[in-house]
Amino acid sequence: DRDELDIKNQDEIQSFIKKNAINIIINCAAYTAVDKAEEEQALADEINHQAVKYLAKISKEKNIKLIHISTDYVFDGRNFRPYVETDSTSPNGVYGQTKLDGEIAMKKINPKNSILIRTSWVYGSYGNNFVKTMLRLGKEKESLGVIFDQVGTPTYARDLAKAILDILPQLTNDKVETYHYSNEGVLSWYDFAKEIMRMGKLECVINPIETKEYPTPAMRPHYSLLNKRKIKEKFNITIPFWKDSLDSCLTVMKERK
C-alpha cells in the first residue's frame, strides 16, 4: 500500500522495518506502465531500480529474507525456446531495463537467503489487469481485436503468492538466486482473450491482429515463455495449468460480487 509505505522513501522503509521487527520482505511493488516508462524514465528507475537497491542493502544489514518480483521483459523476445534463468538479458525498453537494473543491484549487494522471481502476464481478482479489462470490454463491445503474435504464459497472482509461501521456509542460499514462475502452458494474448470470453460466457467476438496493427511507444517481447524447471525441482512445487488458474480467478471474482 503506497499510502502506508512509499517504496521511494528510504526513511519510511527504515522506520517501518524498525517498528515492525520485519524478517521477510516480499517486494511486489513496481512501476509497470510499460509505455509511460518511455517518458517517465526517472520515476521508473527510482521504483524498479533504486528502491530495490535500497531494499537489498537494508535486507543485508538486518539479515532479512528478500524475495523480489521481476519480469519477462528483461528478455528481448527473440528466443525460440522457453527462457532459462541463465539466458542473456536484453530489454527492449525502459521498463525492462529498469527491472534488469534492479536485479543487477540486488545480486551485487547479495543479501543472504534471498531470491528474485521473474514472472509474466500477471493478473488477479484485485487491481487492473488484462482479465478484468477483457471482461469489461466483452460486455461493452460486439468484437475486439487482440494481438496473436506475442506468445507467453499468464500468471495468476494467487498461484504466485502460494508458491512464495511454499518457498520461504526453504530459503537457505548464500547467494541471490534467480527463478522463473508463470502458470503452465503456451498461448498468445488472442488465445487468452478468447478463453476469458468463453469462461465469462460473453458473446464478444475476438479477432486476431498483428503487433504492427497496434503500435505502442514501448516494444513488447514477441516470445517470453519462461522455463520453470529450476523452481519446480528446487522447491518441489506444482504449477497449475493456465486455464485452471483462469477458472479459479473468475470463480473468486464471482464470489466477491
Low-pLDDT residue intervals, each spanning 5 or more residues: none
Order of strands in the sheet with most strands? 1-2-3-8
Beta-strand content:
5-15%
CATH architecture classification of the domain at 10-127 and 154-184 and 224-241: 3-Layer(aba) Sandwich
Structural class: alpha/beta
Distance between the termini: 23 Å
What is the tally of helical segments?
8
- The CATH class name of the domain at 10-127 and 154-184 and 224-241 reads Alpha Beta
Q: Write down the overall mean pLDDT.
A: 96
InterPro entries: dTDP_dehydrorham_reduct, NAD(P)-bd_dom_sf, RmlD-like-bd
Domain RmlD-like substrate binding: 1-253
EC number: 1.1.1.133
Protein name: dTDP-4-dehydrorhamnose reductase
Task: Characterize the structure shown.
The protein is an alpha/beta fold and 257 residues long. The protein has a domain at 10-127 and 154-184 and 224-241: NAD(P)-binding Rossmann-like Domain (Rossmann fold). The chain contains eight helices and ten strands. The protein has a four-stranded parallel β-sheet. Strands 4-7 form a two-stranded parallel ribbon. Strands 5-10 form a two-stranded parallel ribbon. Helix 2 (41-62) runs parallel beside helix 3. The longest helix has 22 residues, at 41-62. It is globular, with a radius of gyration of 19 Å.
In short:
This protein has 257 residues and is α/β, with parallel strands linked by helices.
